[in-house]
Protein 1
Amino acid sequence: MFHTHTRTCTNTHVMTRFATCLQDLPSEGIDHSFHIMSKRQQERRKGEVHIKVQLIAEQKEQRRSVSAEDAFTEFMKLQKFFVAVEAQEFIKRGGASWHGQLTSPAVQLLHQHAMQNGMTELDEAVCDWIVVAEYHEKCGVDYKYVLFTVERLQRQWSEVRTKGVDPEKQIGQGKVQLLLNALRGFRDWSFGVLAKFRVVFPPDNKPARARMAFLLKCLEQFYEFDLIQQKLPGQNFEMFVSSAVKQSTSEWFAQRQALHEPQVTTTDTLVTAVVELMSDILTDLYQAVKVYNLMLKPCVPLCCSACAKCVRAM
């Protein structure tokens, strides 16, 4: 509850009471003017009051000053905690993958922490990506949210650059290194997943195919990020996906070949092994044309068209 005085045009004073619930206050506080009027009809007094309220977290009776790096670290730890708890709770309730939406109290607390410590929108975007890159696998974060996070990061990075400011200098070398580690980790993890796309994203599983499509969109946006092009050069989106698909196909063929290899080598067993292997190859090529090529063709057209040519030749 807040009390304030205001002077009216008749040079008298009026006591004003402003009451609100703490949970109703936005994290950025209140900075607003309110019109006031006497409840007594015979007095006809009115005026205006300006109220400014800020939410400040106190520690040991006095807020300690923290550096930008410490504030960022505290913010990231807090966000990791919320993401881990809420993602696990979501999955326990039967959800397939967490959509990335934190509860209102968690969002308010994070926003308050960011404002109180002078964090920029770019700082928050960097932290969001670092947390998502670390937790998206273990907590089952939806690839739609991963895509949203990398798009937000790229957008904030570009906005800072358009203002004539170097984003790397603004956030500092320490945060840049954390960001690069997170980007590199996501890239390596994604390669491993795509290299096993036949198992991770079965062709007869529609939700799995949707996840693969969004993962490819994430990677496409990922490789458009200029920080990737500058700090992690040597590969583009098409090369990345093509390498993963080729490795996947090579490993798959070796597994099928080993599976059908006869224990006793005779003419009959060799013929049977070849027939079974060719059957698996035709089935895989059919699935590639009907399912995987629809997603991979925009990424690696040469690889996909080669599969289609093989099917037509057979």
Protein 2
Amino acid sequence: MADPEKALDTMEVTDNEVEEVEDVEIDEQSNVAKLTPEMLAAIQGKLGSMVGTPSGYIASLPKPVKRRLKALKKLQLECTRLEAQFYEEVHLLECKYAKLHQPIYEKRSQITSGAYEPNDDECVWQSDDDKDDEELAEGVQNQVKIEEASTTDENVSGVPEFWLTIFKNVDMLAEMLQEHDEVILKHLKDIKVKFSECDPMGFLLEFHFEANDYFTNTVLTKEYEMKCTPDEDDPFSFEGTEIVKCKGCTIDWKKGKNVTVKMIKKKQKHKSRGSVRTITKTVQNDSFFNFFSPPTIPDDEEADLV
């Protein structure tokens, strides 16, 4: 976002630029506008868009006023530093509760993989299906059970295709998923998140696979590095914790099983002789597994991506 001093110096308003806004509700007792956090955030964000042709406003101000504006900038920087501290403590809370969640996730993994069979007490859960069953007449209910028994494989282990089902029902993941990925993700056993509290702040994703016909890896990883440091020259640009780097891993594909590439045939015509030849070219293919090959982000933030 823009420097507020610079923003004031460059702000111009014409009749055509005036926007209609809704009336702000006023507290009659305190005579103070009831501004919501969203409205305050919008006001803060608006400062970043108030940059255009210099109007000379700052230059026309008396020196004492300019001096006070610098003090306001310093106050804003102090606020931003406190906000950064808030996000750092939120990350520490995430790390703390990730450890508390870990035993629960381990039990979930054991159940879905079939390594552990939950006992009767652990399976007590009132579901809609149970309520429907209670409403059925006893004779009809018995018939339903007989039909279910005839169509259900009692020897099935765990929860088949647990993670693939999740992928297909989470919009963001479903968008990344291709049909040729599904047969591989049937072998996904578990996903784990490991947080790093500091030096650097970040987290690691681990995708655990059982043996399959596509690659030899048992674990695929993606590591994220984050920072939570405001820019002292531009405190309004701070938006909290941000990801600054990410690193994937090498997938050891078995021969002919790499779903992230495809072979295409292209015809080329010789300019002088007019003869035509067919060449084969390897190009990138849409796949969820491209997730593990992110683009390289240079250390120099000003440099272009490689």
